[in-house]
Amino acid sequence: MHIGMLADMYQPYVSGVTHMVSLLKHRLESLGQEVFLFTFGALSYRDQEPNIIRSPGITIGRDGLSLGLNLTRKALTTLKSMDIVHVHHPFVSGRLALRHCRPRGIPIVFSNHTRYDIYARLYARPLPASLIDRLFSNYLRRLYCSCDLVIVPSPAAMQLVERLSPTCRRQMIPNGIDLKPFLGVRDPIRREKLGFGTEDVVLVYVGRLAREKNIQFLIEAFAYASRRAKRARLLIVGSGPLRKSLEVRLARLGVSDKVHFAGFVPYSQVPLYLACADAFVTASVTEVHALTVMEAMACGLPVLGIKSPGVGDAVTNGVTGLLSPADLRLFGGTMRRLSEDDEQRRLLGEQARQASRAFSIESTADAVLECYRRLLAEPRRKPRDR
Q: Phi and psi at residue 246, in whole multiples of 5°?
């Protein structure tokens, strides 16, 4: 089977979506499928994977993010020869798939990876929120209806898709991770290298330092919790535009000495940082099924998050972690109690490790491949004007 994946951005840019796409591509190839990935920019980047087809794009910032609008003639020729296409970003990639694949009857699958509505409200200012919601809802509704199948990773994401397009064809397939690097870490990062002691309780966050991750809320909650939980420490793994402002805020709160910024860490080392910690913390409410949460669970860490779609679908409150309302004092209070209760962390962590086995990339890829085969076995849709 020739599978075409379309992504607005890909490596060297690092995100949960790009990593999930890479894992899925690699697993499908190991099952004997030929997978081509169409993306933009970073033309000089040396890909470690076969069949990465890049078209020109504009590089933005220093983290490898590139954006483009159109595929090259060579890329389009290859795209039109695919048996099926799988779209991983809705706007550029979705538009290109509908324009070039739909008229040829090539089945189109779309994976809804992100809370696009929340991202839009954060980054499409100063447009009025009502206008932003209407524009994005209308676009996504048309995209869902035009695809042959919409894949969603969690019950909350399914509800979002159903609300916008109750008649579109959809299926829930959880995101998957490669469990092996996380299940048995032998040599975690030593705490003393991070400025922490053996008696400290290390809370770790892994992700971008950006507005959509609600990272400002997280450090405010940590400052509140650490006033009473004297052993609590915070390890922040990742980079992003808010790094400097977070450091300034921590200094003003008087807790800089309790926080360590690890900066950008190669993905292969992420398990080493997770394994040196006692619990995973996140305040993000923009996830649909966060890979970092599942990776932390596989390392045996209980997860503290906000009761919201995505994180709430991965974490069972009181079983694999704790979920709190999006209230600073309530969230901070829960963080304090988790930091002080060693036995609760141990029990939740053991249960989190067991629950993480349901999130293997092998299961995810098998389910996605079955969807492809089912669509290809059906009569092809009649070509339709875009």
A: -70, -40
Rounded CA separation 206/16 (Å):
11
**Consecutive H or E run containing 226:** helix 215-226
The answer to whether residues 64 and 125 belong to one domain is yes
Instruction: Give residue 274's domain range.
Output: 180-358
Q: What is the DSSP letter of 381?
A: P
Cα pseudo-dihedral 84, 88, 94, 99, rounded to 10: -30
> What three-state secondary structure class fits 306?
strand
Residue 386 clears pLDDT 50, i.e. is over it: no
In 116-166, alpha helices (H): 116-123, 129-146, 155-164
In this structure, is residue 68 part of a structural domain?
A: yes
Segment (H or E) for 172: strand 170-172
Q: Give the strand pairing for 34-40 and 149-152.
A: unpaired
Q: Which helix (H) or strand (E) holds 247?
A: helix 243-253
What number of other Cβ atoms are within 10 A of residue 138's Cβ? 11
Peptide bond before residue 126 is cis, with ω within 30 degrees of 0? yes
pLDDT, tens digit (0-9, with 9 covering 90-100), for 226-255: 999 999 999 999 999 999 999 999 999 999
384 falls within a domain: no
CB atoms within 10 A of CB 151: 24
Q: What are 383's two structure tokens? A: 């070509």
What is the DSSP annotation of 31-95?
TT-EEEEEEES-TT---SSS-EEEE--EEETTTTEEE-S---HHHHHHHTT-SEEEESSTTHHHH
Give the Cβ contact number of residue 40 at 10 Å.
24
Q: Does residue 299 fall inside a structural domain?
A: yes
Residues 235 and 291 in one domain: yes
pLDDT interval class at 225 (50, 70, 90): very high
| Statement to judge: residues 193 and 317 lie in one domain | yes
Q: Across the chain, what does the average pLDDT equal?
A: 93
Total structural domains within the chain: 2
β-pairing verdict for 65-67 and 58-60:
antiparallel
Q: How confident is the model at residue 64 (pLDDT cuts 50, 70, 90)?
A: low
Residue-wise pLDDT for 120-149, tens only, equals 677 666 778 788 788 888 999 999 999 999
Q: Does residue 219 sit within a domain?
A: yes
